[in-house]
Design goal:
alpha/beta; Rossmann fold; five-stranded parallel sheet; 8 helices; globular
Length: 157
């Protein structure tokens, strides 16, 4: 798939694999994509918004309750802007919230607001990934038409 000219929203959740997201943003941009980043509060424990702003070239969206961003319905606008939403890393928690249709933070709200494809990239401990609840949630989101990419094996940290 060519990424040239594609508009991608990268939704970053709070797992240790979040430290790899600047490299992911760089690689997407190298392939011609325009990337904007939204992140959960937990993601900020692993990577700073400033780091992701530096590699994406755009301010990072990190709050559903930001009055400046939400004056223009920022979560709706990001969802409409995107040609593709990628959730990477997608923690078991984020996967569960998306499967349940929750909209309690910016990233999960974008997933509900976008008419574009959503790709979920699971990143967690093997036992958490194999857990019946996680597998059920992945089945639910796949049945709804969301894409599930991976996981790959290897070092997260």
């Amino acid at each position: 798939m060519s990424l040239a000219g594609k508009k991608i929203v990268l939704g970053v959740s709070g797992g240790i694999a979040a430290y790899k997201t600047p490299e992911l943003v760089r690689r997407l941009r190298d392939r011609g994509a325009d990337v904007r980043v939204a992140m959960t509060e937990a993601a900020k424990a692993f990577i700073t918004p400033l780091s992701l702003q530096a590699v994406s070239g755009y301010p990072v969206s990190d709050s559903l309750l930001d009055p400046a961003a939400e004056a223009a319905m920022g979560h709706i606008e990001l969802g409409k802007w995107a040609d593709l939403v990628i959730l990477a890393p997608a923690t078991a928690d984020l996967i569960a919230r998306v499967a349940a249709g929750m909209a309690n933070d910016l990233v999960s709200t974008i997933c509900l607001a976008t008419p574009s494809p959503v790709a979920v990239v699971p990143a967690m401990n093997q036992q958490m990934y194999r857990a019946a609840a996680t597998q059920h949630n992945l089945d639910v989101i796949a049945a709804r038409g969301l894409l599930v990419w991976g996981p790959d094996s290897g070092s997260q940290a």
